[in-house]
Amino acid sequence: MSDVNSLTMDRPVEDSILNHTVQDVLGKPIDRVEGPLKVAGKATYSAEFGFDRLAHGFLVRAPQGAGRIEAIEADAAKAVPGVIDVIHDFDGFIRNAQQGGETEAPTMGVREVHYVGQPVAIVVAESFEAAREGAALVTVRMSAGDGDFGIEGREDEAEKPADGMIPAHSDAGDLDKAMADAAATVDAFWTTPSQNSAAIEPHVSIAEWQGDRLTVHGAYQMLSSDRQQLADALGLEEEQVRIVARYVGGGFGSKLGIAPECVAAAIAAKQLGRPVKTVMTRQQVFEATVRRSDTHQRLRLAADGDGRLTGIGHETIVSNLEGEDFFEPAGLATHFLYAGANRRVTHDIVRVNRTLSGSMRAPGEAVGMLALENAMDELAEALDIDPVELRRINEPEQDPSKDIPFSSRKLAECLDEGAAAFGWEQRNRTPGGLRDGDWLVGHGVAASARSNLLQPSRARVSVTPEGRAIVETDMTDIGTGSYTILGQIAAEMLGLPIEAVEVRLGDTDFPPAAGSGGSWGAGSSGSSVYLACEALRAKIAASFDAEADGLTLKDGHAIAGNRRVPLGELVGEGIEAEGAIEPGEMAEKVNQASYGAHFCEVHVHAVTGEVRVKRWTGVFAAGRILNEKTARSQCIGGIVFGIGTALTEELVHDERDGKCVNRDLAEYHVPVHADVPHMDIRFLVERDAAANPLMAKGIGELGISGAGAAIVNAIYNATGVRVRSYPVTLDKLIDGLPPV
Amino acid sequence: MHFTINGQSFDVEPDIRTSLLDLLREHVGLTGTKKGCDHGQCGACTVLVNGRRINSCLTLAVMHQDDEVTTIEGLGTPDDLHPLQAAFVRHDGFQCGYCTPGQICSAVGMLDEAAKGWPSHVSESLDDGALTDEEIRERMSGNLCRCSAYPNIVDAIREVADGARDERRVGEEAAA
Ligand code: FES
Ligand code: FES
């Protein structure tokens, strides 16, 4: 049993050991440690583990969006050579995927159908081909029920949900009066469509039972809560379930909670006494995992003649399944981004028979900041103030909703550095006034902000007599760089070259971690590694007869005074310690967020309205940057999600039955190589003592926040057309383009 | 049935419905090639067949008994990476890594197409062989990357393409 070094973030860290270590590996743009495995095709993703007698499962979907299953006719399927069985369990299957971080099963039971594509049975066969053919031959007979399939025309049925990440409703002052008294106002409606995370690795689970113990190799982001959800769904104790996810092929929120394939595979494997692998088809990923809700947003801004905001209103209607509390928190950043005494931020849900809505990269900011940052652009124009200056004028002294200080906030500095690097001053200010051949040229700016969160997280670190360190935690690396940055933190803390650190992730047999979600992964799991290493440093100091303060660890050696000894000689048979970080009062006493500024140039075809993003400058401040290379990639990745949001991504629902119409990658348009320019990404130096002992804040969702708004502001500058319905496809532009 | 994959012989009896992709992943243990859509929409399954890039999910295994199939595992190993694989690591041309084998195989095929002078949609003329960033982006647009490592992938490919071009030039100069 190892010692546990715990820290609850009730006060700012006074100092970080990382401010004094000398290995000089943390923050450096080193290559991903697992990179060679990934580029050589040797990193093993969840579908790729082999098992004896492995059977293949294929999910069967409900064909209608509402009603009740009367029968599942499986004779034809069972007659297919190779099909072992067709299994359904109306009570045991889960209706929909679970939301991230929940500790219980999602809504159970599939006899009542709530959306087209709800998985209701599983065909298990000796081969994938046989299972697929069998599934095509299963008939699901339903009696039709009444369903509601969209928000349009049903806005007044919207109901106030339970509070989520933020309060559903909040009100301060008198917004209507502020609007009436203002020198300039904006009051308009924005819409954003349903979206899908579309990680390139589809959802998959391989379920294998050993007696009453279940092991799932599953493509999931948050293993310790996934394990709790799965245990609850199957009526097991947590200890009976193990989830393994060594490599996850992207998640972006869609793999936070367990999804229907996981429970179906487990039930089938139990019944058949064989391991069962169930990979969702791409179409099933769209229909039966999770979408980002569509939103209807009313955004109101009131300002005095100097551009100072006196009121902000952000009222959002979203959609979700009956019984689901999650609402897309579109007003999240609106609470604190700008000053203004009179504020109203609300969220209401319209109930629909559609695929579950839940978290997709930067839930809230990703779509809420579109409306907010477009509205700021409109206000700047109404006031004839430069949009960068307008944002600077409205920098709040402290969190304007909660009246608490910001832990650190460098939005103005991001805007300044970005404006200088981009050449913002040289831009054309007359909408539609700059043309290059067939292309109208425009420039846009938007702020970026993403709340910083800390979650409980634990890790174990050991040092071997050979002087190597091993890090173990059930944290996942979904492309975020966890393997690398956790290795860098341990290497920096223990004075080891990165090659001397081995990081083992993605297994609930290891101490439970925060998981990958909400941009909290690096800060939370990194802190647990820091704390474990802090305890190890104390042990090393003790066996070296030195004060922990006077100890220097570098290049595999302990140094104190004029003594220098190889680390391995100080650890006997080996030493280990656990670190545990807990959120505390800092979450309430200060407002923590990462900030950034986006500047972009777009070209809009003068005849067709086609939009091309040509140039991008993004400046970000997110506390200590743990690896400049992977952090830059995270920012680029987020911005490209913003390009998709602005221009192409729209999950279309059939208004007759709620079905996802464009449920594949040919019809749901994510950005491709040709849509993405090179980007100038910069980081400001910052340390946030309130965040965690690393003094680092989240970065995975910062890039997407505000990015799409910068594009749409640039489109306005290029064309003079304001589009408030996302995505801005060319049909929405073409009528308003300047005469050719 | 007999298959030649990465220069190695395999005797397997796949279902006639088995795609080349599933043959690789499910029957011969070469899971480096990825399945992202099974419909020719993402490029994750890209392999080289007789040197040309194809989506292995869109072709049946039984059609390839006389072909030379090269997968990501055939290009290099973690200890001995192909120049493109090494460039992807240096430039962080991936995050989750799931699209990556397809991107790399596709890039190998694409560089060969470009070297042969095959034009693309964005080529200014049929004989201007310059492999600009715009050309690389266009020619690689069949390979989706949701992590959006696109700019870094372009950097990695350009570095290798420029290196190969320099080598060719040196070779030509030496020959002259
Ligand atoms: S799996 Fe073949 S193109 Fe997507
Ligand atoms: S690296 Fe994740 S999809 Fe490309």
From TrEMBL, chain A:
Q: Which Pfam families match?
A: Ald_Xan_dh_C (PF01315), MoCoBD_1 (PF02738), MoCoBD_2 (PF20256)
**SUPFAM superfamilies documented for this protein:** CO dehydrogenase molybdoprotein N-domain-like, Molybdenum cofactor-binding domain
Superkingdom of the source species: Bacteria
Question: MF terms per GO, please?
Answer: iron ion binding; oxidoreductase activity
Query: What's the protein name?
Result: Xanthine dehydrogenase family protein molybdopterin-binding subunit
Native organism taxonomy = Bacteria, Pseudomonadati, Pseudomonadota, Alphaproteobacteria, Sphingomonadales
Record-linked SMART domains: Ald_Xan_dh_C
Where does the record place the Aldehyde oxidase/xanthine dehydrogenase a/b hammerhead domain? 40-146
PANTHER family per record? ALDEHYDE OXIDOREDUCTASE MOLYBDENUM-BINDING SUBUNIT PAOC, XANTHINE DEHYDROGENASE
TrEMBL record, chain B:
Provide the leader sequence positions. Answer: none
Output the CDD domains linked to this UniProt entry. fer2 (cd00207)
Q: Which domain of life is it from?
A: Bacteria
The answer to whether keyword Mitochondrion applies is: no
The 2Fe-2S ferredoxin-type domain is annotated at 1-75
Recorded GO molecular functions are: 2 iron, 2 sulfur cluster binding; metal ion binding; oxidoreductase activity, acting on the aldehyde or oxo group of donors
SUPFAM superfamilies referenced in this protein's UniProt entry, alphabetically: 2Fe-2S ferredoxin-like, CO dehydrogenase ISP C-domain like
- What's the protein called, per UniProt? 2Fe-2S iron-sulfur cluster binding domain-containing protein
Q: What is the lineage of its organism?
A: Bacteria, Pseudomonadati, Pseudomonadota, Alphaproteobacteria, Sphingomonadales
